[in-house]
Amino acid sequence: MPFLGISGMQYSGGSLAGARILLAEDSNVFTSMISTKLKELFDIDIEICRNFDELQLAYDKSSEPIRLAISNINLPGAEKGEALEYLVDLSIPTIVFTGTFQEGMRDELIAKDIVDYILKDNIFAVDLLAESICRFLTNHQHHVLIVDDSATARALLSSRLKRYNFRVSVAENGTKALEILKANRDIGLMVTDYNMPDIDGFELTRRIRASVGSHELRIIGVSSSTNRLLSARFLKAGGNDFILRPFIDEEFYCRVNQNLDTLLQIQSMRQLKLSA
């Protein structure tokens, strides 16, 4: 059954059954809604843990790896967030499903390298959760190239993208980026710094656009410069998006998703025209 997410994600790849997913949630209403939605959309059967003891037992009882966990922050037996700490310590990718949101709490969650957080404060909460789960389980289909001469910046962006389950390649300069793109035709998104010593982000984008269109590769430029005109110059060079540093995780992930969603939509339309 085709799935259209609230943010514009489209998925028609069929069943995602087979991935072991835990839901640590004590609300009967939400456990019922979530399990029904995931089964209906993706043929996913989830394991429900209604308290901390059941969560620990679920981990201990099976050697099958847990692909993803969805966890409430305050679970019976773990009212101070121990369940989330437990999952994070086990390096289990986790989406937090919570009814409370404060700036300080958001910062703490992001610091734990969670996959995502979804708020229970609206009628679309379960739909947003389903989309987040679908993205995580399918993001490995996307290959992203990071281009930056700073090793720290490359490591930071790479870790963020890998947290979301993307396949990632890195290049320390424009020349290496062109080599990687030539050898990996499946790369669908490039995130490139503007200020690099050999080939800057503008020139790299222009060279790529001489042979590769936006229907094959989306390009996001990034820069820490205060020059607001950089975005206009980058877009005129053939880029698709531009982000000024420092950016927050949610903004970065949203821009990545939007560009990949657009890429898939364009490719789907081209396939329909070719088959018509």
TrEMBL record:
<dbReference type="InterPro" id="IPR050595">
    <property type="entry name" value="Bact_response_regulator"/>
</dbReference>
<feature type="domain" description="Response regulatory">
    <location>
        <begin position="143"/>
        <end position="260"/>
    </location>
</feature>
<protein>
    <submittedName>
        <fullName>Response regulator</fullName>
    </submittedName>
</protein>
<dbReference type="InterPro" id="IPR001789">
    <property type="entry name" value="Sig_transdc_resp-reg_receiver"/>
</dbReference>
<feature type="domain" description="Response regulatory">
    <location>
        <begin position="20"/>
        <end position="135"/>
    </location>
</feature>
<feature type="modified residue" description="4-aspartylphosphate">
    <location>
        <position position="193"/>
    </location>
</feature>
<keyword id="KW-0804">Transcription</keyword>
<keyword id="KW-0597">Phosphoprotein</keyword>
<dbReference type="Pfam" id="PF00072">
    <property type="entry name" value="Response_reg"/>
</dbReference>
<dbReference type="InterPro" id="IPR011006">
    <property type="entry name" value="CheY-like_superfamily"/>
</dbReference>
<keyword id="KW-0805">Transcription regulation</keyword>
